[in-house]
Amino acid sequence: MIKSFKELHETATEKIKADGAKKVGVIYPTDNKYINAIKRAVGDGFIVPTLIGPKNEIEKLSADFDIIDAVDPKQACQIALDKASKNEFDFLLKCNINTRDFVDLLYSDQSGFVTKKTVLSHIGVLQTERYHKLMFVTDGGVIPEPDAAQLINIIQNATKVCNRLGNELPKAGLLAAVEAIYPAIQTTMLEAAIAKMSDRGQIKNVLIDGPLSFDVAIKTEVALSKGITNSKVAGDTDIFVMSNMETANGTYKAMVMYAKAEAASVLYGAPVPIASSSAVDTSENIFNSIVLGAYLS
Amino acid sequence: MEPISSSDQIIRAAAALSETGQKKMVAVAGAQDVDVIGALSSANADGILDATLFGDKNKIEEIAAKEKIDISKLDIIDKADPQQATYEAVKMAAEGNADVIMKGFVSTSALLKTVLAKEFNLRTKNTVSHTAVLDIPGYHKLLSMTDGGMVVRPNLEQKIQIIENAVLVNKALGISPVKVALASGVDAEYESVPSSLECKKLIDMFAKLNIENVVLQGPLAFDTATSKEVAKAKNINGPVVGDADIYLVSSLEECNIIAKSLINFADTVFAGVITGARVPISLVSRTDTLKNKKASVSIACLVAEYYKTIGFGGVL
């Protein structure tokens, strides 16, 4: 099981040696932090990129790449999606277009890349010295207020990513403000029901418990002090499932900005993985996202 | 007054109140609680406050002896029945003899029910809400996140009241103007994101209250609200961008979980207080550090002092 970005890089390097470099469509990389990450990933043999964006502007940053000219982020997206649909790319890298614009475009009628039923979710992968493994925070970018069925899809997307990273039975904590179940707090009722489905074997390849508060999810001693003694997840959570998009989004950003967590992110559930990035991400994080995207594709 | 910008300053400011003869009295409901008496004993020793402990005297003394907490300077009034302890603590505040009500070994809902009972006249037009004032290393000022404790999914009216309650806390910290970020996962209005569509209405509703020196902006994501650099990269401008004092969220989970990620992984110290009644209500939890508990009781003292200056607290 991969427990750090270093291990991810090593494992991905082995895979790429066997598979060959992955073809990636890069959407609107109009900043040096993207260009530097892409150069590094090319240098390490992970990718063969096609950059899609304003040719003049990108050429000023680097003259090393094949560029398909696109006047704005939306046009760049559509070109990337069309080519991915024709199997010309193994995965995509979303750069200087915000996630919401990208997601709205993806689900629009003209995109042709996913159907309205496709459940795509954003998975933020975080590494901090204070936690003993990678944290997968989801969904911070796609579904503002997921219902039960969507939450299960979100869990399954993250489970697939963890499974691919060698974690055969990841632990998913369904997070809430409290660990008790209260009829007045809808989130706790929903999460308890999903945890019960898991107990009955209805959700495969993942252990699920919830509701769990954040402390209980990350610290066994807090779980024990609150009387949670038989949880398969508490204190050892891999997947942090948030009940709404704002919570996952804010947590990911708080961790990157203030906990100085190393990070990667991916939009998962579409025909190809979409390596993602947000404005808070460093070039290092973008590189991690590229490696993750290449590994998952 | 220079705005208070750290948890250390919160604690120092409460101690400074005592030095100028404005020492605050905290009335505890159900004081047989190790975290509460630990925090109060320590804060009392630092000269921050006085406390009256309503609760089970035997248990209080037992806990203090076992945990080696010095309670000799705190008043104990023996009320073994939690309901009676709560009633007496609230009554003390309602009669103007205590400045802060503190939750001990009683349920939050039972305490609030008593505080909001008609006979005490402590209720205001607002709902009560919890403000978590975060001292985040790396952010240049305090950030008040709200509401992570009381209102599960606030509607528009409740959001306005939650803002008002948090503004009072910020004004008590000497912050002016108070900059309020209306949180969302996005920085613009999107049909596909419900929380982003409320912001315009909230701004209009708040404007009608005519509260001076408060600026609202939204929707703003967490990064845009707290980093000018990130906002610049996203080309988002405005008075609150990168400089938020208050981060108003849309659910209990959003506030609680983001704050806990900062507390657990980014060395954030927080001071929490419940406002919306005429007396601030303090509560500390088992997982809080001592500094965090001290900051919480201290901020309640500062809010109590502010209420006095605006004629809002005590007996009206």
Commentary on this structure:
The complex is a heterodimer of chains A (297) and B (316). Chain A is of the alpha/beta class and 297 residues long. Chain A has helices spanning 5-19, 32-43, 55-61, 73-85, 99-106, 148-164, 186-199, 214-218, 220-225, 245-257, 283-296; strands at residues 22-27, 47-53, 67-69, 91-94, 121-127, 135-138, 171-175, 207-212, 239-241, 262-268, 274-276. Chain A has an eleven-stranded mixed sheet with strand order 3-2-1-4-11-10-5-6-9-7-8, sandwiched between helices. In chain A, helix 2 (32-43) links the parallel strand 1 and strand 2 (47-53). The longest helix of chain A is centred in the middle third of the chain and has 17 residues, at 148-164. Chain B is an alpha/beta fold and 316 residues long. Chain B contains twelve helices and eleven strands. Chain B has helices at 7-19, 34-45, 57-67, 82-94, 108-115, 156-172, 194-197, 199-207, 222-226, 228-234, 252-265, 290-309, and strands at residues 24-29, 49-55, 75-78, 100-103, 129-135, 143-146, 178-183, 214-220, 246-248, 269-275, 281-282. In chain B, the strands form two sheets. In chain B, strands 8-7-9-6-5-10 form a six-stranded mixed sheet, sandwiched between helices. Classes of the chains: A alpha/beta (297), B alpha/beta (316). At the A-B interface, helix 5, helix 8 and helix 10 of A face helix 9, helix 10 and helix 11 of B.
Topology summary:
The complex is a heterodimer of chains A (297) and B (316).
Chain A: H1 5-19, E1 22-27, H2 32-43, E2 47-53, H3 55-61, E3 67-69, H4 73-85, E4 91-94, H5 99-106, E5 121-127, E6 135-138, H6 148-164, E7 171-175, H7 186-199, E8 207-212, H8 214-218, H9 220-225, E9 239-241, H10 245-257, E10 262-268, E11 274-276, H11 283-296
Parallel strand pairs in A: 1-2, 1-4, 2-3, 4-11, 6-9, 7-8, 7-9
Antiparallel strand pairs in A: 5-6, 5-10, 10-11
Helix pairs in contact in A: 1-11, 2-11, 4-5
Chain B: H1 7-19, E1 24-29, H2 34-45, E2 49-55, H3 57-67, E3 75-78, H4 82-94, E4 100-103, H5 108-115, E5 129-135, E6 143-146, H6 156-172, E7 178-183, H7 194-197, H8 199-207, E8 214-220, H9 222-226, H10 228-234, E9 246-248, H11 252-265, E10 269-275, E11 281-282, H12 290-309
Parallel strand pairs in B: 1-2, 1-4, 2-3, 4-11, 6-9, 7-8, 7-9
Antiparallel strand pairs in B: 5-6, 5-10
